[in-house]
Write a structure and sequence with these properties.
Elements: H1 2-20, H2 23-30, H3 36-84, H4 96-106, H5 110-143, E1 155-159, E2 162-168, E3 175-177, E4 180-189, H6 191-194, E5 197-204, E6 215-216, E7 224-229, E8 240-246, E9 251-256, H7 258-261, H8 263-272
Helix pairs in contact: 1-3, 3-5
Length: 273
């Protein structure tokens, strides 16, 4: 919750700094216009604060969810500022043109006031809907489960010279395809390691050779994914074996306990054995 509050405050601070960097809003908020140097400083500070909020979202939730969270908090901060500015104690004074306009409006017939009142309520309703949109987005984000590789069940380890994170794609028991159970997993290697890896494989039980290393992970970099078959009479002691082939031709293996990376799979194997 503190992270979400930090993103909200950074977004709000960024919008306020950008508003102060504009002559019209600067007069509104400070009753004076700042020097051009201060305008440039505030403009740069505003964009930096918005970038900071985006970076915090990406760091915690990843690119896809982080972008949605950032836009949600931007909406909350922007709408809050829009509704607060008219209540700011230092309101801009109206000139003669505004006074003449008020005199014109005062002479409008009563029959013409009803459509204006109806339009006023329509605007209020549309504003209420706009306020509910970011609230709904925030609610979905707060209830959404983290990405598998960011969950508590994800296992970190070392295979040869490369570090990795392995996790089940879904916290569910293996699904059946024509009576054969299958389970999906995701893996991520460190950013520096990824360029040195040709392929990665996963299977239950220790592989005897590279040809029997299991199924290869599809995708590259942050999106490596594979669905493996659960062999008959599998045991928890068989472990999950990650095989990684480097671009230099080297092959490395790493064993991971099944119950650590996938409690649902461990429960399924224990029930079937």
């Amino acid at each position: 919750m503190s992270l979400s509050l930090s993103i909200l405050l950074a977004s709000l601070g960024g919008f306020i700094a950008l508003a102060l960097a504009m002559e019209k809003h600067c007069k509104h908020l400070l009753r004076r216009v700042l020097s051009p140097l201060w305008m440039r400083v505030l403009r740069a500070a505003g964009w930096l604060l918005l970038a900071l909020a985006l970076g915090l979202s990406f760091q915690h939730w990843g690119v896809s969810v982080g972008a949605a969270a950032w836009l949600g908090w931007l909406s909350v901060a922007g709408i809050g500022l829009v509704f607060y500015l008219p209540r700011w104690p230092w309101q801009p004074t109206q000139g003669k043109a505004a006074t003449r306009r008020e005199r014109k409006l005062a002479g409008v017939e009563t029959a013409a006031a009803q459509p204006l009142e109806r339009l006023h309520w329509l605007r209020r309703g549309a504003t209420g809907v706009l306020l509910l949109v970011p609230v709904g987005v925030i609610g979905l984000l707060l209830t959404a489960s983290p990405k598998p590789l960011h969950s508590d069940e994800a296992v970190q380890g070392q295979v040869g010279p490369w570090s990795f994170t392995l996790a089940e794609a879904q916290r569910k028991a293996p699904h059946q395809v024509l009576g054969t159970p299958f389970k999906a997993f995701e893996v991520r290697f460190c950013e520096a390691c990824d360029d040195q890896i040709r392929a990665a494989y996963l299977k239950i039980r220790k592989p005897r050779s590279l040809r029997a290393a299991g199924l290869v992970f599809a995708g590259n970099r942050w999106d490596r994914w594979v669905e493996i078959q659960i062999p008959a009479k599998a045991k928890l002691s068989d472990q999950l074996w990650l095989t990684v082939e480097g671009k230099d031709g080297s092959v490395h293996h790493a064993a991971v306990d099944i119950d650590k990376v996938s409690p649902s799979l461990a429960e399924f194997i224990a029930r079937e054995s």
